[in-house]
Automatic annotation (TrEMBL):
<keyword id="KW-0413">Isomerase</keyword>
<keyword id="KW-0119">Carbohydrate metabolism</keyword>
<keyword id="KW-0460">Magnesium</keyword>
<keyword id="KW-0378">Hydrolase</keyword>
<protein>
    <recommendedName>
        <fullName>Beta-phosphoglucomutase</fullName>
        <ecNumber>5.4.2.6</ecNumber>
    </recommendedName>
</protein>
<comment type="similarity">
    <text>Belongs to the HAD-like hydrolase superfamily. CbbY/CbbZ/Gph/YieH family.</text>
</comment>
<dbReference type="Pfam" id="PF00702">
    <property type="entry name" value="Hydrolase"/>
</dbReference>
<dbReference type="GO" id="GO:0016787">
    <property type="term" value="F:hydrolase activity"/>
</dbReference>
<dbReference type="InterPro" id="IPR023198">
    <property type="entry name" value="PGP-like_dom2"/>
</dbReference>
<dbReference type="InterPro" id="IPR051600">
    <property type="entry name" value="Beta-PGM-like"/>
</dbReference>
<dbReference type="GO" id="GO:0008801">
    <property type="term" value="F:beta-phosphoglucomutase activity"/>
</dbReference>
<keyword id="KW-0597">Phosphoprotein</keyword>
<dbReference type="InterPro" id="IPR036412">
    <property type="entry name" value="HAD-like_sf"/>
</dbReference>
<dbReference type="InterPro" id="IPR006439">
    <property type="entry name" value="HAD-SF_hydro_IA"/>
</dbReference>
<dbReference type="InterPro" id="IPR023214">
    <property type="entry name" value="HAD_sf"/>
</dbReference>
<dbReference type="InterPro" id="IPR010976">
    <property type="entry name" value="B-phosphoglucomutase_hydrolase"/>
</dbReference>
<keyword id="KW-0479">Metal-binding</keyword>
Amino acid sequence: MRACLFDLDGVLTSTASVHAAAWKEAFDEFLHEHDASAAPFDIDRDYPAYVDGKPRRDGVRDFLASRGIELPEGADDDAPDAHTVSGIGNRKQGLLLEVVKRDGVQPYPGAVRFLEAARDAGLRRAVVSSSENCQAFVEAAGIEDLLEVRVDGVSVREQGLHGKPAPDTFLAAAQELGVPAAQAAVFEDALAGVEAGRAGHFGFVVGVDRAHQADALKEHGASVVVNDIGDLL
């Protein structure tokens, strides 16, 4: 392997749970307004199945589709209380930033050790995230100098890439690093992410089991599953 391509939330930083909580609050508010009898968003079931690892609007669409709900797309600047795909996404974004502003962003110690070891071994390193907050989170976590390339939700929007589970973002990162997919390893905690690694025919796909779903990670394409990437050292 010549390069490591890391997802951010749940792999390098402990922000996946913050994303999940923000999604739950945003969806539960919408569901109650849409149908007071609707079952709430289930973090353990709905988050990994429909939202985790995907671009924001894709997550909104996929979860709503699971409930038989279809909404207009809306516009980027829709109000957080708008019953549109963009509105719900903006509601989640506002909730997320409130929590991050209050609590900050913490990298996993094992991830920092792995990034440092990869750098020292001469391996190329990229962060590949569906989040449009990726750059701010990387900076807040203090790991920006350990990563050479960033492909994120902003890249998806600006370059017209397909988000995970399509392999586009990982392939774009490998290309920017100048490394063939077969010589790069993907590190992911989301089912959509390991699917993307498999679809892109990467040399190795490491599943990081933060949500007690080791079997599902393997079924979706992980070559190996660990609890933390520091375990690989």
